[in-house]
Specification:
The complex is a heterodimer of chains A (432) and B (140). Chain A is α/β, with parallel strands linked by helices. Chain A has 17 helices and 15 strands. Classes of the chains: A alpha/beta (432), B alpha/beta (140).
Chain lengths: 432, 140
Amino acid sequence: MVKLTDEERRMFDGGKGRLRQRAIENIVRYAEVLGAESLCTVTKATVFCGRHSYLDVCGSDGFDAVFSKVQLGSDEIIPFDSISPVCSTQSCVAPCDLTSWAPLSQSEEFFRLNQDYLRRANEAGVTIAGTCSPYLNGWIPLPGEHFVTTESGMTMLGNSLWGACCNSDGIEAAFWSAICGRTPRWGKHVREGRRGNVAVHVSATPNSRMDWDVLGKTVGDRLPSGAVPVISGNFVHVSFNNIRQFFTALAVSSNCEMCHIPGITYDARTREEAFDGISPEVSFSVGFPEMLETYEKICSPGEGPVGLVSLGCPHYDIYQIKRAAELVKGRHVEKDVTLQVWTTYSILEMARVNGYLSTIRDAGGEIYTSTCPTTIGRPFLERFPGLVFDSLKQSGSVRSSVSSPNYLADVEGCVDAAMSGRWIKEYRWRIR
Amino acid sequence: MEDQVIKGRGVISGRVEGVALVCPASITGWGGIDPITGIIKDYDNPNRGESIKGKILVLPGSKGSNGWSCYFSITRVSGANPKGMLITNVDASCAVAVVGLGVPAIVDFPRGSDPCLLIHDGDVVVVDGDTGIAIITCGS
């Protein structure tokens, strides 16, 4: 039985309206399934707004009917008109750019429908940010702060790097928490759930962002369910962008929500602190051969024409855009190739002010915001003969939906492919 | 061969019987399942091409994006939902999915009773979400 505070009980009994009542009913049911005994207060949330493709199942139903049925699990229509006043809530990616639809193979009608979904979320109190990387907008949870997010890489970052507390609850539960301001006190919200239980030694020395990306899936593929890995190795080329790439790939290839890298992540300065008095249940090592095997499995073989080159998963920060602009400056994207850079609209404005946007446009590329190729989906992706991504997560998600050759390269390889219009073996990733 | 009985923690009540689909590598939710047909489309999943519709879905836990539960719970709307679920060790994504699906579910099986190891595709399984007992009849 989940113990509720007086305030939670008032919400549960309907004293704070039907929407909050339904949200906390769901949170209590969720807590019971987990075996949690109480709830904790959530002060940050990202939620998955917009008319996403999986909602097609609901046909032409209106916003409130879809929201009630899918997000609240209710046949009764309960308008989504408010969120918890103590929870700073912003939107994750939606299926559309903030201003363009035709270049992304979308109709104006669909674009307007998505805008309507975003407007309804905004009117309920959600700040429309449209990003998988909310920290680019200053949404950064503190150590010990309880947050929810719809982005698995953000879950890993918040738990691991910043010592905040989050489970990978998912799309519906993030809405429940944002509305009622509570989540089950379980998993990464309690000390026992944050202890290391798997020891991983990395014998390779990851240097580039792509090295860390490939390492993330190499480790994630080998983790047992419920793992909190403690990772050791010679990590001399650590940067925020390398770490977030690693966490993104690790999260997407396992159900891992947190890892310890003693000396880098927040909870543990040493290996002993990371394991917090328990012995690892599993130990393994990975190195360059295992990483190469991971890469060769995900990157299509051979050479061939390229139609789309996509940079920015997770959404690029301003320095990554600056680097992309440096690489394309004075060159031009091959005819019939689409070069797209993905970020938040706040970073887009910085790119505009600093001249990076015009440099990328002069080269034939474009910067888009608020979404990404896999979130846009098939009609857009299917038109390209070959796809090149700078991210294992993006590449993998697209590969599950579209059968075109799908290549993975660092930003330099991606830009070269966009300029030449062909994927060649020299672009393939190798550890240097 | 005699029926095998395993016991975990029943979390969604009700009793159903169905054919098992065992996914030891789990399933990626976001991009890994077609919510209309229930067909697994995960590019590197050994169960790719199979459907969860009407099955007793057996998983070790979740995998991948936080957009996991929604791909399962929305099958309740499309009618492609599994009949029941057995999850070796519950995690947050799985817990939200079983709440959303509302089908009989058992989680947290003790060591030695891992449904991913003891049940095989095609076995007939009775899931009793009230008692936490699953009865396995060999399908071959």
